[in-house]
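User: Predict the full complex structure for these chains.
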Amino acid sequence: MEKKDISRKVLSVIEEKHISPTPKWQFLLKAFLLWLSGAFSLLVGAAGFSVIIHLLRFNDWDAYRHINKNIFSFTLLTLPYFWILFLALFIFIVDYNFKHTKRGYKYRLPIVAAGSIFLSMFLGTAFYAAGVGRVIDFTLSDRLPFYNQFGNRRPMIWSEPENGRLAGMVSEIKTKEEFSLVDFQGQTWLVIAKDASVAPMISIEPDVMLRIIGGLTDDVSDNPVFQAKIILPAEHFGPRPRIDGLHCWESPLGCPKVNPMPDMYRDTIPERSMEKFR
Amino acid sequence: MPENSNIEEKSDEELVGLAIKDQAVFLHIMNRYQAKLLYYIKRISGLSNDEAEDVLQDVFIKIYQNLNDFDIDLKFSSWAYRITHNQVISNFRKIQARPQNAGIDLNDDSLRGLAADLDIEGKIDNSLLREKINKILNNLEYKYKEVLILKFFEEKDYKEISDILKKPMGTVASLMNRAKIKFREEMDRRDSLEIK
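Assistant: Here is the predicted structure of the two-chain assembly.
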């Protein structure tokens, strides 16, 4: 008797309150949105991984001795922590979404996590090959204030002339042994390249990006003076330094004219093997 | 509404399909599960009969509202137990209470099954078996208590427990092992106290 009472009571509540089964499309939509946000998170995480590959590939492996004492501490210093955390966050979101799908609970978290890490890396590698990592890094460097303090810190690492590291864009060839360089803060430097070793693949001419290892000098000039010992190419540093707060293409003066390097200059700085810089 | 004789022969899964179109059919589903789910609620929550019936009503309404979400790859009973489990947890949260330590309704077969599995049949006097197991279960953490109740008193296999608790089978197996170890430890602790 009691058994029938509860069931009938529920049935009468259903009738009185006009309760009806939730339409199937609502459950399907919820499931679809869950999968969609999971897939989106996977793609975002993969994009983050492509930036990690990009930053690691163009890390200063050729000059690590001038940044840190050994390769281990250099690696720890220069790992792209922001992007690693970014990737971890989106892997967590993918895991969370997958675990909340209809059958997601059947799989153990380590398996789900390993699967999403593998997928993120696989897609991230494909994105990197397509140039996505470089574009993201460049765009954020250009558009996001302070990005270089946490995302790609290479410009910061190479903006320490007091520690012997300077990077920027050649703005003018002064003499056969001197040129002007604009650093990432927009500061113009006079670089003395006498007796400097120059990486074989670069030619020093306006608009070229360079990393320079050397030191400050007491020489007097309109601009601070940096004595170069080693000159290396500076690839994938993001946007070029701005002059007076403007990109060259935004400036009324336009971009620096790319002049061919004077032959005498080329003769002065002998091309040497990269091995000698290490 | 289809005829009663016809209805009784239908599987739970078939009844779900019919109940979506005709709410009167839902009465048959409720009749099939009312007693089982009421026992389950009382066993895992320790609520009184009246309180457990209130929870059961909410469970049935939830089941009815979610009929279209029923996954045909699951057994209907696993799905119904899952909703019941969630409703009991939700009820605890709502009243901000922990499971109460009321007596668990244990039948003799289930008791013997649990004692045999834990290899404790010889350790305790049969007349004290029910009381002792009751006290130990009530002292276990909720997650251990529930998994033991599902296995030994609701007689669910690992696959069903996995579907009810929404945990991987491997996790259920680990949970079950730990629950048995905790149960034995608690029993040994009580035995040593009795000897003193």
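The CA atoms of residues 63 and 69 of chain B lie 9 Å apart.
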